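Let us work through a complete example step by step.
Step 1: write down the sequence.
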Amino acid sequence: MGLLTKVLEENGRQAPESRLIWATGVSSVLSTYVVGVYSNKEFLGKSAGATVSIAEEMAARDALRRLFETDEKRAQIPFDKLYKKGLLLDK
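Step 2: predict the structure and record it as tokens.
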């Protein structure tokens, strides 16, 4: 949630707000919580999790994916191989 907060603030938007959308099986082993993330009443993302904190973290990741228009199926950039200490990537 920290990264999402920073990205929103750098773009002049309000801090994210988490809201519990629904929960099921709260008193069982198979509990599921769905959390939505909003900024200034605008929906940013949502996700489910076994706890509220897990659902909140996953919802923040979903919001970041939506903001940057990325997809989980895209290939990852191997920054660990591209970056060397003291060198910039664009050189």
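Step 3: interpret the result. The longest strand covers residues 17-24.
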